[in-house]
Every structure is written in structure tokens, then in C-alpha cells.
Structure to design on (431 residues):
């Protein structure tokens, strides 16, 4: 690691003040940032640890949606949404492993926007909102490509608002060593609309498969997608799978998610 | 920078560079070499310790992030003369071969039984709202963060089931 200073503010205001230092960076659970620092792929001058800020944690029910604090861990989300939003609970409960889920946070994941992260698929499918210290950003506008978001330098993800669907399911085809999705698909069914969020597949990061959303909107069954395939253009090709393979998996995982959600 | 850690019930003041991982702090600064460094990337689980009652990878966290936290390592669970129930179960069932992953396995399993007692569901649970039976599939899923390159898994599962069956941790 390169040298840095670390501060541990107790309030959001203190954290925002500390972030004004040049090359300062927020540090949440650290399950991605700390390995990144070890590889010398990041060089912050100041790390602002957010784990001591009580107001960033917790899950509350809002009119038809869940409001989840940015500092809430995957483990807490898996436990506390089991009854209210089982699709999200399953998603959170399969991120990494139990020790990682006890540290990693939803705010950290969304700020990092790894192209294979799980939450972005749920955010896109449900039409969720990212809440920062000074504004609210719709998921469609927030994710702007691999590791790129609408966040400004001095913004912290303080929470998210996720509409709770009538039914939902997340299916991921795991890369077996890392357990990150090679392709992950979140399907959310609301009264009058269906959302399909796809992660892991595209060079452009998470996206909505709008053709599938339309077909499922009138017929929410796996058969509605029987003759539908996703084009391979723009999909990721690497040693784990070709663009064609990932494109194929998108349709397979979407059908499985629909079957499991009905 | 100074960090106060409550380790195995004892308050220790650590003076270390902010870059020091909790694992390096335990092993190199505080002389607690029970926790092991396997991958140093949060993938193997050999460094698992219990912080404020929750199991975490000590290689994936900085010591200075834990000012005031309560940390339990394998040394704090039991002693050679008075093993904890989980440590004794690993000995009884020969739940290891080379032993390198064992401290992490034991810390993880100890905290895992606490999670089960609190009704946390896992991906292997049929019912997400609690009351799960600790089947082999449940144990495997819940211990998925702890790798054993000797593949002593069958005996590890036996040991955990034994400790769980006795209602002891």
C-alpha cells in the first residue's frame, strides 16, 4: 500500500469535511478497497472511514419501498429483508462469503460499481434510487459504465430507496473461484411493469434488457422469452467466457429468474 | 497512530502505521500468531477472527478502523489445558490435516453457531424466516468462506455438527 492517513469521523458532516482534503477517499467495509490498496491500484492521501457513522446504517420501510442506509452490510440486508423482500435477501445472502458479508456494504458496492457487482442489477430492475448527501439519483442515470457512476468527488452514498416488487428473483451464474456473477439477472414484477437488470455481462456495466421487460410485461412466464436471445455485441469476452457465451447466459438466467419468481 | 483494541478480554494499545492490517497487527505487533495469513486477499478465511461478535477476515480490514472494538482470536476461545467445545470437537473428529486453516475454521464455526442461534438464514435454508435445521448443506454453505487445501471437510463438518448438537460453542 502507498502511505495514507486515516480518519474515523462519527457523523456524516465530519466525514464530508474530511473528504474535502485533496485525494481523500471514503472507506466503507473495505472488502474491495483494501485489496485494491494492497495491489497499489489506488493512492488516496486520506481515507475517511465511514464505519463509525451510525446514521448511515439500517433498513426502514417507506411507502412501497425499502430505505437502506449506505453503511448497511450485506449480512444485515440478507437477514432483515428476508420477509419484506426475499429477492433482495437472496441476492445479498450470496455475495462473497459470510465474513465478507459482515463487513461489505451496499453503499460501498454501489459507489464502486464493479461491472460484476450484484446490487446494481436489483437497482436497475426495480427502478431504485441512489441517495447521496446532496441529491437523489435514479438508477438509470447513476450507473455510467464499468467502475463509473454519477457520483461527484465530494459525494457519499448515504442510502438507497428500492421499490418492493410483487415478486422478484435473482439468478447468477457464478464464476466458481470468485463467486462473482459471470452473468447475473434480477427480475422484478410490479403491478403494470416488469424490470430486468443484467450484471456481469456487458462492457458497459449493468443494463436493463428492455425487450425482455416488454415481453414479460404482457406475459410473465419463461415461455414469453422462448424465441428471444440477447445480441453478443458489446458483451465481455475474457478467459472465463466469450461474448457469445455471456449473451446466451443472459437469456438462460432471465428465464430461470422468471420461473423462480412466478 | 494509536489504536486501542480489546483483544481476548484484554485492552491493548497498538502503535502502528495506518496501513497495518488487523491480521498483521495481531501477528507481528501483538504476538498473537494463532490467526494465519493464507491468501491475504479475503478468499481463504485462514485469518478469520471475531469482531464485536461477528466473524470477519482480519486481512481485509485495517487495525486502526477498530478503535474500541472487541476482538476474539483462536487464543481467546480456549487454552491447551481448557479447550473450547469447538476446539475439542475439532480434536475429537480430527478436523484438520496440516492445521494451517484450523484457527480460522474454529473462529468461523464458533461465530457461525451464534448466527444460527440468532436465527440468521443462509442461502441453503428452506425457510428464510428462521428455525433452520443445521444440515450438512447448511454447514457447508455457512462455512463456505473457509477453505481447507488438505480437504479435511468431512471431518470439519462432523466436528461442527458435534459441537452444535451439544448446544456448545
Amino acid at each position: 500500500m502507498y502511505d495514507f492517513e486515516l480518519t474515523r469521523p462519527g457523523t456524516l458532516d465530519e466525514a464530508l469535511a474530511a473528504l474535502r482534503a485533496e485525494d481523500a477517499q471514503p472507506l466503507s467495509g473495505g472488502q474491495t478497497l483494501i485489496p485494491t490498496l494492497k495491489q497499489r491500484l489506488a493512492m488516496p492521501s486520506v481515507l475517511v472511514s465511514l464505519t463509525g457513522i451510525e446514521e448511515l446504517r439500517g433498513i426502514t420501510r417507506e411507502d412501497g419501498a425499502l430505505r437502506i442506509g449506505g453503511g448497511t452490510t450485506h449480512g444485515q440486508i440478507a437477514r432483515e429483508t428476508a420477509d419484506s423482500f426475499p429477492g433482495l435477501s437472496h441476492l445479498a445472502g450470496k455475495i462473497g462469503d459470510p465474513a465478507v458479508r459482515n463487513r461489505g456494504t451496499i453503499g460501498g458496492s454501489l459507489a464502486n460499481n464493479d461491472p460484476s457487482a450484484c446490487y446494481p442489477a436489483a437497482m436497475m430492475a426495480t427502478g431504485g434510487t441512489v441517495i447521496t448527501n446532496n441529491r437523489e439519483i435514479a438508477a438509470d442515470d447513476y450507473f455510467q459504465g464499468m467502475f463509473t457512476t454519477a457520483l461527484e468527488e465530494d459525494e457519499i452514498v448515504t442510502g438507497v430507496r428500492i421499490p418492493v416488487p410483487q415478486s422478484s428473483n435473482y439468478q447468477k451464474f457464478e464464476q466458481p473461484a470468485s463467486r462473482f456473477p459471470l452473468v447475473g439477472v434480477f427480475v422484478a414484477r410490479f403491478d403494470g411493469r416488469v424490470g430486468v437488470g443484467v450484471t456481469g455481462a456487458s462492457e458497459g456495466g449493468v443494463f436493463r434488457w428492455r425487450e425482455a421487460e416488454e415481453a414479460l410485461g404482457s406475459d410473465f412466464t419463461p415461455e414469453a422469452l422462448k424465441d428471444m436471445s440477447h445480441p453478443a455485441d458489446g458483451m465481455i469476452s475474457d478467459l472465463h467466457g466469450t461474448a457469445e457465451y455471456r449473451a446466451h447466459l443472459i437469456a438462460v438466467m432471465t428465464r430461470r429468474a422468471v420461473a423462480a419468481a412466478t | 497512530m494509536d489504536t486501542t483494541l480489546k483483544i481476548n478480554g484484554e485492552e491493548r494499545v497498538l502503535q502502528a502505521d495506518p496501513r497495518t492490517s488487523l491480521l498483521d497487527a495481531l501477528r507481528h505487533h501483538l504476538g498473537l500468531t494463532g490467526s494465519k495469513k493464507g491468501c491475504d486477499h479475503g478468499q481463504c478465511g485462514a485469518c478469520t477472527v471475531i469482531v464485536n461478535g461477528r466473524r470477519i477476515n482480519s486481512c481485509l480490514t485495517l487495525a486502526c478502523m477498530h478503535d474500541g472494538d472487541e476482538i476474539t482470536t483462536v487464543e481467546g476461545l480456549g487454552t491447551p489445558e481448557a479447550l473450547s467445545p469447538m476446539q475439542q470437537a475439532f480434536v475429537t473428529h480430527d478436523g484438520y490435516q496440516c492445521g494451517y486453516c484450523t484457527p480460522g475454521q474454529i473462529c468461523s464455526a464458533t461465530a457461525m453457531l451464534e448466527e444460527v442461534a440468532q436465527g440468521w438464514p443462509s442461502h441453503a435454508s428452506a425457510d428464510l424466516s428462521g428455525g433452520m435445521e443445521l444440515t450438512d448443506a447448511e454447514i457447508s454453505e455457512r462455512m463456505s468462506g473457509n477453505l481447507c487445501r488438505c480437504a479435511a471437510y468431512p471431518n470439519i463438518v462432523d466436528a461442527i455438527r458435534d459441537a452444535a448438537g451439544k448446544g456448545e460453542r
